[in-house]
């Protein structure tokens, strides 16, 4: 199975999500947004950690089998290459709000999309807001 994201400041919400994803199958591959993609998606002050550091931290987790960095702003090319049996997304998505090109690629390959629960009040944006407030 695969999932993807920025994983900029790894926190309990990320780890819980990745453990839930891994529990759905035998192997978990993460598609990691490149620095350029994160900056486009999140703004000029992101990522906080560079893609190499984010990849090293993710790869060190016991629930993660491999990490692949991709430059595009969506996971469409990554999904086309990996052809996952299961594509895992967080509970902030629904089948209707997920990128529809990504959904189509997974569906056409015979895979399924699984939405897993989020840990409430855990986000990189929230962490950065608290740091900015303290500074």
Short description, anyone?
By secondary structure, the chain is α/β, with parallel strands linked by helices.
How far apart lie the N and C ends?
Answer: 40 Å
The helix/strand series, from N terminus to C terminus, equals EHEHHEHEHEH
The main sheet orders its strands as: 1-2-3
State the CATH topology: Rossmann fold
Q: How many separate structural domains?
A: 1
Would you tell me the overall average pLDDT? 93
Helix content: 40-55%
User: What is the architecture at the second tier of CATH?
Assistant: 3-Layer(aba) Sandwich
Number of separate strands = 5
Keywords:
single chain, 135 residues, alpha/beta, Rossmann fold, 3-stranded parallel β-sheet, two-stranded parallel sheet, 6 helices, globular
Overview of this protein structure:
This protein is of the alpha/beta class. The protein has a single domain (2-134), classed as HUPs (Rossmann fold, 3-Layer(aba) Sandwich). Helices cover 41% and strands 18% of the residues. The chain is built from 6 helices and 5 strands. It has helices at 12-22, 35-42, 51-59, 76-82, 100-108, 124-134, and strands at 2-5, 29-33, 66-70, 86-90, 112-116. It has a 3-stranded parallel beta sheet with strand order 1-2-3, with helices on both faces. β1, α1 and β2 (29-33) form a beta-alpha-beta unit. The termini are far apart. The model has no long low-confidence stretch (mean pLDDT 93).
